[in-house]
Specification:
Layout (H helix, E strand, L loop, with lengths): L6 H12 L13 E7 L2 E5 L2 E4 L5 E2 L4 E4 L4 E6 L4 E4 L4 E10 L4 E16 L2 H5 L4 E4 L4 E3 L4 E6 L1
Length: about 150
């Protein structure tokens, strides 16, 4: 059988098509997006402290820090809204959401400041899998819109 002149091109095409499957396991995924940012707002990701801008990604384990007059509105993939007030330290400790099955869970930790939470699909469909934690209490989400403050 004569050699196929397009064999190298076919092989290259197959490798490119399979490229997404070579992604590193455990690569952080986008949990949500900054919708609005006012004043000093930073995302702490690992050892990096990044200035936040509208459209920036928020990943699981990221911390949001706001300055004296800073605030941020974040929309998570399930539609949950987090509005972080001034002088706040908030971490998205855990976040998982499967848009196909609508299964998910989240844990948000507010160490300082204020946080307004507006329920998305996880809170509506799986309220038992949604928690807001502060240094003094853990809030199990049963409502649709509330504010948590801690000194």
């Amino acid at each position: 059988m004569p050699p196929l002149p397009f064999k190298p091109l076919l092989l290259a095409g197959l490798l490119l098509a399979a490229a997404p499957s070579f992604a590193q396991p455990g690569t952080p995924s986008r949990a949500g997006t900054y919708k609005d940012v006012v004043g000093e707002v930073f995302t702490v990701r690992g050892a990096q402290r990044l200035p936040a801008q509208p459209g920036d990604a928020l990943q699981p384990a990221d911390t949001v820090l706001t300055g004296e007059t800073g605030s941020a509105a974040i929309v998570l993939r399930d539609g949950t809204e987090l509005i972080v007030g001034p002088r706040s330290n908030t971490t998205l400790v855990r976040y998982a959401f499967d848009a196909t099955t609508q299964e998910g869970n989240m844990l948000v930790q507010l160490l300082r400041g204020s946080l307004r939470y507006v329920t998305g699909l996880i809170g509506k469909l799986h309220p038992d899998k949604t928690e807001i934690k502060t240094p003094t209490l853990v809030v199990g989400v049963r409502g649709t819109d509330f504010i948590v403050e801690t000194p």
